[in-house]
User: Fold this.
Amino acid sequence: METTPRLGLELVQAQQAQKHVTVNESFRRLDALVQLSAVSATTAEEPASPSAGAIYILPAGKSGSAWSAMAEGALAAYQDGAWVEIVPAKGWRAFIEDEAALRIFGGLDWAVLGETQERLGLNTTASDTNRLAVKSDAALLSHDDVTPGSGDARQMINKSAEEKTASVVFQTAWSGRAEFGLNGDDDFSLKVSANGADWREAARFAKADGKASFPSGLKHPETGFAIRSILPVPGATVWSRSIASMSRVTSARAWPRSQACRAACSRWQARSRTSSSTTP
Assistant:
């Protein structure tokens, strides 16, 4: 008997006798498969008194006079007082009534939709590399106040070994500009790039002692000159003692005596005097 390629519906043949038998069989199959809903995907024992039209997805360890002869993962549909086996095709979806969940047939088994998806794209297409892809103006991750949860909210990025990378990359027009995380080791670091190809490490925080280093150096925000260390905040008792070190640069020479430099030094000295006069 010739059947359709997707749902296996029997086709009426030319000059066929009792055409209504073939048509009715196709209607029964459509009734089972359209808006597919199964009572259970975990019930292993064949029900003694099933409802007309009831469908079960047969699990491992199934038993019963009819079910034992059917394939694992097949649909067992109770029609006209007998069990009918329907072999699913890849991509079929079914609502499982006792789970209130959707399952999808991947070719071997029925997986709960959303639990074992190989890819997920929201408003875009996922790929083998980016298995989760989202296009959205914003994304919200919040603590669980429904279950409820603990009230905490943590996002984890795990890598397999110290020499691997676990990081977050920021891009402009798909070109990297900043990256922070565990980049090739277990120290926390921050890298920046002007073109997405050449990267400079701006800061590093050692895992062993938490000490910070700045491999690319530091520069003063007003003058732009490089400095050797972070200066104390104005108002601290050690501010006046640090004035002398402000003129040091990475080249170990004094700043040029430009008008901008003299103005900056004057402002520092004024702040120092104010700090000294107000500090007990």
